[in-house]
Amino acid sequence: MSDKKQLSDTAISILDLVPILEGKTAADSFKNSTDLAQHAEKWGFTRYWLAEHHNMAGIASSATSILIGHIAGGTKTIRVGSGGIMLPNHAPLVVAEQFGTLETLYPGRIDLGLGRAPGTDQVTAMALRRDLHSAGEDFPANVEELRSYLAPATPGQRVRAVPGEGLNIPIWLLGSSTFSAQLAGLLGLPFSFASHFAPTLLHTALKVYRDSFQPSETLKKPYAMAGINVIAADTDEEARHLATSLYMSFLNVIRGTANKMKPPVDSMDDKWDMSEMYAVQQMLLYSFIGSPATIKSELQQFLDSTQVDEIMVTSNIYDHAARLRSYEILAELKKGNLA
Questions:
Q1: I need a labelling partner for 179 at 20 to 30 A (CA). Which of 27, 124, 233, 262 fits?
Q2: Residue 339 sits in which domain range?
Q3: 136, 148, 174, 185, 322 from 179: Cα distances, Å
Q4: Where is the Luciferase-like domain (predicted)?
């Protein structure tokens, strides 16, 4: 149908988990992330987000707001933000001050994506929060408190975010269930679904978001984003080889282990059993792996079925040059220059 969204007119953005590679350090990861962001800016990606994770040996994005400032300082025009800040881990005032500072330093370029999960295990969540009472239940109230700090100050307001108040910082709600989808709809905020690792409720959440949406000063109509994995290479065979690093990373999640990202292997047969393979494949349902022609066809099918306004792509690839190439292929596909 003519009203179907096309890859060429759909915004494409990058989610960087800042993976730490086996044999490398966090400093190497930060260097690679800056280089990727600079290429992403040149290639025309819409935004570059970083995700808050803690106590994970293979992910270096724990101090998310600091990294956002680092990436924004190393680029000029691309939007940089959080995908997301896990709000239960932080006082809303602190988040308002941090992002108020970022927006003041890099005006018109900062996004604030908010999640309600801990971004870690329960023991580490305890270390972050000191207690877990009402860990996620207060999320709507905390979102509203945070928004109040970023709104223009009111007469007699005793607690203010300086800098922060009165700044036009876009707030997104992120989620892997229908909870944040409905809340984003009721508040008239943009919504991003974490289908890159939790695909089950994608279509349900998108429907809940669109059905519950109330126009606001922020947004007049729903704006939905979906996270996906993309591993693109010049051939299907090469892409499938590169994807084994992604599989091993998610095998760590299944097993509850925390290892650095491993280089690709020729076969996964001796790495997992059948139940683990099934679990990983279920988590990675929305993963697009292959040559330009394969990626183009599968992404269009994804757009046809979801009708999302934007896709957020993460590419867990061990070799930095291959990771850059994957995003370059995606950028070229959007421009219609490949396949």
A1: 124
A2: 226-339
A3: 11, 21, 10, 10, 37
A4: 25-301
